[in-house]
User: Fold these one by one.
Assistant:
Number 1:
Amino acid sequence: MSERKAIFITGGGSGIGRAIALKFAQQGWFVGLGDISESGMKETAALIGTEHTSSHVFDVRERAAWDEALDAFIAKSGRMDVLANNAGIPIGGSIIENSEDEITRCLDINLKGVLFGAQAAHPHLKKTAPGSCLLNTASAAGIYGSAGGSVYCATKFGVRGITESLDGEWAVDGIKVRSLMPSFIDTPLLDMVPNAGTNEHIRNRVKASGLEITPVEEVAEAAWRAVHEDKLHWPVGKTAKSIAFAARWMPGRVRKQMRGQMQLLGE
Ligand code: NAD
């Protein structure tokens, strides 16, 4: 087996995935990128140096494509120490305005994609255990359900549940399982619209609500720590940390806030 550690990152062509790629590459790791966006991965690879990366165009919703991508990655890297199950899309708005297609797409990418990734990665992570890690990108939306975020929250609560289940299930194999729970992070995701019924970008709504936007490097730092430290869930950003605290110690207050907050998205 190769000496050099290796991480595979879905959504590696943008935002949080790119920041995680840069962080691990700086620490000397080989980085595999998986994304539907070839151009995004090219940009990430150019920042790292193509000799330290491999790129794999695939859709996390396709189970067979996962096996192909991971086999091609391991043919180059020689091993996989971490899977960052990170690709995901936003959706917001009231449950009544979300279309069937929007709901299905979000559930498939954010939830099914994560389950398929875990399944495909398990044999490879087992070979590098103990110490190997499945790192799932959940969200602060997986801490407390927010008004206007039911579908997204469903997926991120799901990712949180998958993380807790596999932390138990894979303990016997020596594989660590962790989740990142960021609040609003400065990535291209914030420049998307939350659903087809509006032209307003998520970023505008976050700003209007007075909440902070956290630099993406903080998520990369948390990712590095999550892989190396013994804590299951990693809230990132002031809002995520305060929701985590309040949901635990002041649930009545959080509920009251959410009931007054229909304008906000569930990120
Ligand atoms: P981003 O839009 O910058 O990057 C997402 C990447 O995933 C893109 O490169 C996109 O091409 C890729 N992708 C989308 N669908 C895919 C598919 N079906 N198969 C493969 N790749 C696909 O977004 P980001 O902010 O970096 O988000 C990354 C993760 O972080 C997501 O799971 C998101 O839900 C989560 N998150 C983001 C924020 C935030 O505020 N930005 C907060 C909490 C959680």
Number 2:
Amino acid sequence: MNAHAKITKLDDLNFDNRYIRELPADAEAGNHRRQVFGACYSRVEPTPVANPQRVAYSQEVAALLDLTEEACVADDFAQVFAGNRLSAGMAPYSTCYGGHQFGSWAGQLGDGRAINLGEVVNAKGERWALQLKGAGPTPYSRTADGLAVLRSSVREFLCSEAMFHLGVPTTRALSLMLTGESVIRDMFYNGNPQAEPGAVVCRVAPSFTRFGNFQLLNARGDMTVLKQLADYTIRTDFPHLGEPEPAVYIDWFAEVCRRTAEMIVHWQRVGFVHGVMNTDNMSILGLTIDYGPYGWLENYDPNWTPNTTDAENRRYRYGNQPQIAFWNLGQLANAIYPLIEQVEPLQQALNVYKQTFEQNWQAMMADKLGLTTLPTDKDLYTELLSLLELVETDMTIFYRQLALISTQYDVSDDALIAPLSAAYYVPEQLNADYKSRLIAWLKTYIKRVQQDGTSDDVRRERMNAVNPKYVLRNYLAQLAIDQAEQGDFTGVNELLDCLRDPYNEQPGNAAFAEKRPDWARQRAGCSMLSCSS
Ligand code: AMP
Ligand code: MG
């Protein structure tokens, strides 16, 4: 196929369904709930829906698949990606995995509402797996319905794309469709079930394999399939590591550790809180996966989690994400141990996580502050982070405004902190003590910048390249959802458009950079989310 191939009809997508070709299938047929042994997946078809309607699609993801705009606006696109028609080459299936949920082993989970359509190989030879989320029950649906509602689908669709444009490793989203059917959800788990619009997102990633796929095979003592899945994953997604053998399994695990560390540092950089870092929600490729009750830090608070289901223990709070990723990698190490049968190299690989995290975190903080040299004293960071936490400070706005302060001219203390005032939620919290600490910190910071010899222009440019102006603020997503639920998709599409370019000032979109309004403080969906989706 030539490099400029343009696909106008979905039937022309080039499917090469290696996953189902090379891995063992569930021997049992039929779409009923069951435990699945000795297999990586079950064949299952999406459930047709009443009236597919396109809410939005990502032109960048369409381009990855060589799809033209014509293909994406056609009615057939809505039909196919809402689950009503299989286009040529699609061979749908759901995968089998387990996982630790909130620290406890949960046994078989699996794709309870995700159906893979197959893998497209694009004109560049890249492999992209397509997956519908919310397209009906599968053998892994347990007691649930296999469906998804519009609000959670808008959140998944927008956040996948926002994260990509922020430079955070993530699964992508091609499309967001309404099904024309309603889905019953008890959003607050308080005995108030409501009908909500049903929706389907088509997710796209090189692979959707999770730590939990390996864990379940190990838990069941199925070493044959465990090895098959590991070998398949290495050959397909880590081909640079060479043919699978014990030393390669170790290299592979070390790479998973490294990629996971890189991903977590990005999360910390942009203030993303995943909300449900169960091991079944950890991608073997180090991609952010499964956007559920995630949230974005507004006021900097390491203890914050958006997930009301985790409100008590706050296991998955912002400040705990690095430790949790490490714990999850430990579970993956246990799962693949039979392939290696040595503890020491696995432990060394786990150290790769710690080293990569530490190094990247230091570099990330230096970047956020526009420093070229990594300060040897951690005080600069720790004092800053204490200050951010002490009074309600919008993290995103703070770093953008910090880029504006002058390090080259002597200014009065008041003039020095003036640019930062936009970041504070409760200005009265800035008492004299706080202000003097902040000024002292700023003066230390200014000295460091001067030691580096960086001009303010260069520093600003550097900082603005890593400190986003626009993130998917929780309340912005909710406003777009409110509108979409009324049948108006402009909010979703405007946000999608703005979040394509998160580091540059967009005068027309200034409203999307504003801090959370007061009304959003306690409104559901804006600061608190349940797992109901
Ligand atoms: P999550 O916490 O969203 O990652 O989901 C955990 C498990 O529950 C996975 O196995 C999901 O496939 C499954 N699940 C979540 N929601 C549904 C649903 N509405 N129908 C079927 N399975 C679901
Ligand atoms: Mg999940």
